Amino acid sequence: MSNQQELTSNKVAGALARLVILLALFVWMFRPELTGTISNIAKSSERVHVLVIPLMILLLTYHHRAALAERLSKCSLWGIVLLLIGLALYAAATWPFNYAYVHNVAMIPVLAGIVLVTCGWGVLKFSLPMLLLVMLAFPIGSRIYARLIIRPETYTIAGSAATLARLPGVDTVVRGLDIFFESDFVSGVVALGESNRGAKLLLAFATIGVFVVFSRSRSIWRLIVVGFAAVPIIFFCNFFRFFCWAVLEIYAIAAPAGMLARNISTTFSLLLAYALFAFVSSAGLNLFVDIEETARSQETTYA
Amino acid sequence: MRENRNIISVVRSLLSAGFIFSAAVLGIAAVGLRPGVKALSEYYAKEPIEVRRPLKEFDISCLPSFESGWVSSNIPPDEIETDEYAIIRFIREQGEPREVVLFVTYYSDPRSKVPHTPDVCYRQGGAVVKEMKNITIDIPELARCPKVKARLLLLQQRTYNQVVIFCFYADGQFKHSREQVRWMMGKPGNRYVYFSKIETVSSYPIDGSPGPAIDICKRLFREAVSILISEHFPTKEQLKR
Question: Within an 8 Å CB–CB cutoff, is residue A159 touching chain B?
């Protein structure tokens, strides 16, 4: 092993040792929030994507390991500032204000501070997608979420009802959050018995998007374009799930489709989200390709 | 030999000032931050405060626009998580709209959750939101705050449309969202805490204009708010004692 390689390997080992120790302290500090996030997974299918987020973070880290090792630099004391900001946010969200979501979000600056203090700015920049994934794991309070989704949910339900009404022999009426339908074969209701029924998986679609987009090195222009496309893609997938569900309900003539319709439409919509994000982040437009190839070849060189 | 060098290098990296300080900060926070903040929150915990006059004694004869031509009746509450409320329906024989409802709830437990707002709960009941926006209602009777920002909703029910105007009154200030009320409840300063939701509801035909229903809701809101503040809700001075 050459001296240069030995030096790099020592640097990586040192950074990893520091990172592991600080992350252990982080888990100790935030154990109630972390256990709360994990226990929420079982309470709602809305949160199931949280199960795969740790795996996604590990995969992204593994995939970019060479670039991360190359970017290891001197630790920055700004990391301590971020740590203190996160802890202050946590304290303020306990008293005087009481916001469970902010408790969780306070983990993000603390995590960023840990990365900065152990690995430096270069690694922090590469870790931003992982931090974004961590943020998407936190449940938004049910009452806040119910208020935030009013417009998307209303438009999704109205859009689905209008599209369904174009199908031959199908009439639809929207009442509250449900679509009542009548077709030549059957009549019934779509979406009965599910909270946030018109906007249930928005965070799951966003999680898929972040993972797909950052699974490779992309140019900044590509990221900007994907950033703009992300919101329409997420809402389209949400609409697609709802529409598929309704179609299955309407045409499951023999017996009510029940959970099967919901599960099939959810699976299709998640696959669609994957496909759309993969397309937008990889479509071979000349604007991006050259820069991305350069970035990738650099990464290969480091590896 | 090389392994020793590697171990020495790793140990040396653990002795950097930045790392030691960060570890100390996180360690101290893990041990002391939660109990410390909890102790502070208990020491400065706000207390409930009663209304000056129960809302059940709300004097409808003080509503000038509803004195004559309207018949009022109380409506039993449905899951409102408080005993302090006034739900009054006003009906008239002539003129449109025929009906308007005043719905006031008062909460003073610092642990109370701010209730769902009508934009959320009416939808659960089968309504479709047609429009929602902030509006300003002039209440000249209020010397401190003659312009009140409230929330206007137009809802579509199965056979008719509805107008809802609502806002919160928290610790002597008008707020039009749940988050603003939560902020007020947490804000340090006062010893006591309360908040109230004030809502007026009317209806109009599916193919009709919402104008008259909005006007009647605004009028009831305006007249009720000035009575609630002058006779029922605690004063700002009472909160500080």
Answer: no
